[in-house]
Design brief:
Layout (H helix, E strand, L loop, with lengths): L1 E7 L2 H6 L5 H12 L4 H12 L5 H12 L5 E4 L2 E6 L2 E7 L4 E7 L2 H11 L5 E5 L4 E4 L10
Antiparallel strand pairs: 1-5, 1-6, 2-3, 3-4, 4-5, 6-7
Helix pairs in contact: 2-3
Length: about 140
């Protein structure tokens, strides 16, 4: 099973750490494996660098784009694409988006593509395989 966590990183923080995304990965990984009081400190750092996810906006955009598909349904607040090739579940919370999938990966790719089409840029983390990256490349503006 594949599992991706996605976070909405503050634009100024993302711009400052452009090219050093591993620092984000290390922070989230360290948070997962820590115990109090360090965990509370790391949680404050994560709260500082992340922005709340507009749950209803993203949820409704994805539902609108998938509502005609036969293999799409909603169960217990999770968006699901399931067919004979596999299953993908997308759970959108205020602090993170969780994508879990197994099988061929068609549902996984569909959800990732739809998230790329939103106006938001998420940092995706696959902790199990040590992979991370932006769903869309960051746009670096000219600064004077």
């Amino acid at each position: 099973m594949k599992r991706y966590e996605m976070y909405l990183i503050d634009e100024q923080v993302a711009d400052f750490f452009y090219g050093r995304e591993r620092k984000f990965y290390n922070l989230f990984k360290e948070y997962e494996g820590s115990a109090p009081p360090k965990k509370e400190i790391l949680e404050k750092q994560i709260d500082f660098i992340t922005k709340p996810i507009p749950v209803l906006t993203i949820h409704s955009q994805i539902i609108r784009l998938l509502e005609g598909r036969q293999d799409f349904y909603i169960r217990q607040g999770k968006l699901v694409i399931e067919n004979h090739r596999g299953k993908a579940c997308l759970q959108i919370d205020q602090r993170a988006i969780l994508l879990e999938s197994n099988g061929y990966g068609e549902g996984e790719n569909t959800f990732l593509d739809l998230l790329k089409k939103t106006e938001y840029n998420f940092l995706a983390i696959d902790r199990e395989n040590g992979r991370y990256g932006w769903l869309k490349p960051l746009k670096r503006g000219l600064r004077l």
